[in-house]
Amino acid sequence: MTASPEVVQAPLSTEELAMRYRAMSEDPCFANVPGKLELDNWGRILMTPPSFYHGVIAGRLVRRLAAALGGEAVTDATIATPSGVFLPDVAWASPQFMSQHGSEFAVTRAPEICVEVVSPSNSVRELNEKRNAYLAAGAQEVWMVYPQSKRIEFYGAQGQLPCSHYVVDLSDIFS
Amino acid sequence: MQEIIDAPLSSEQLAMRYRQLCDDPCLASVPGKIELDVWGRVLMTPPPSAYHGLAQGRLVRLLSALGGEVITEAPIVTPLGLFLADLAWLSAAYIAAHGIKTPLAPAPEVCIEVVSPTNSVKELSEKRHAYVAAGAEEVWLIYPQSKRCEFYGPQGLLSGSAYGVDLRDLFA
Measured by CB atoms within 10 angstroms of the end CB, which terminus of chain A is less buried, N or C? Predict the structure, then answer.
């Protein structure tokens, strides 16, 4: 037996979470896992099954964000937050963010905009957790995109916003 | 289909989701264990070490002294989620009354977790409560590294198991 701890005794730090996530990414055992892998702050692996339409919406968001704001639109950005390692479907990072954090394997600060495209496998509890996690990790805004009811909710540090402070053309995103 | 899960899932909903996951070819190559929390989130546990499997194998043999049946990776639906006990022991009376369904409901009499370094105390405490809430008489937590067993009943930690299984050779 190794000298590693017998059991995870306390919530993991963001550094420990980032390290675990990196080890998992390099583990061939996980290479064929479909969908997204995330970690809760006790190191438990969370899996989200993939869906095609979800990817279509995410792709459109990437194009709109990049066209309107410059910077980088990132899919499945790995963010180590105090609540766990989560991957927003789409994130937008300014050139300033990129120059500070762009080379990190898992960023410990959230990019300016984090977007979740809601799937039927998501729960309100999960979305609340992620929204709070991204904002706590420094996101300016979190967008929740609901493809089925064709609506978008915007959140900032103070709660829900009537609209985004970023000027991005989101018309016809659900067409 | 519903756009989002807006309330914790019932046992029936969890059982249905779990059976769908079992039949999903997409998940056939996923290594390790798949479980569901009560909000339907899929939890993955990486494959266990050889030593974990060895302890599991020995427990199967030791539990066979009780008669009944032993199930490894037993899917159990509980009020807190759908979890796979590393081992479960079921009496003949349980089987006669409830049969062997996927997932099992209620929880078998004895539910056992062999602790791995990827488990957290939070997860083990959740599972322990979940199995008891689903009807388990005892939950055993086996710690291969420190070579010890903890036994829990509905009232909490027990000084020993009421089943009298000889576990002396478990860590030999």
Answer: C
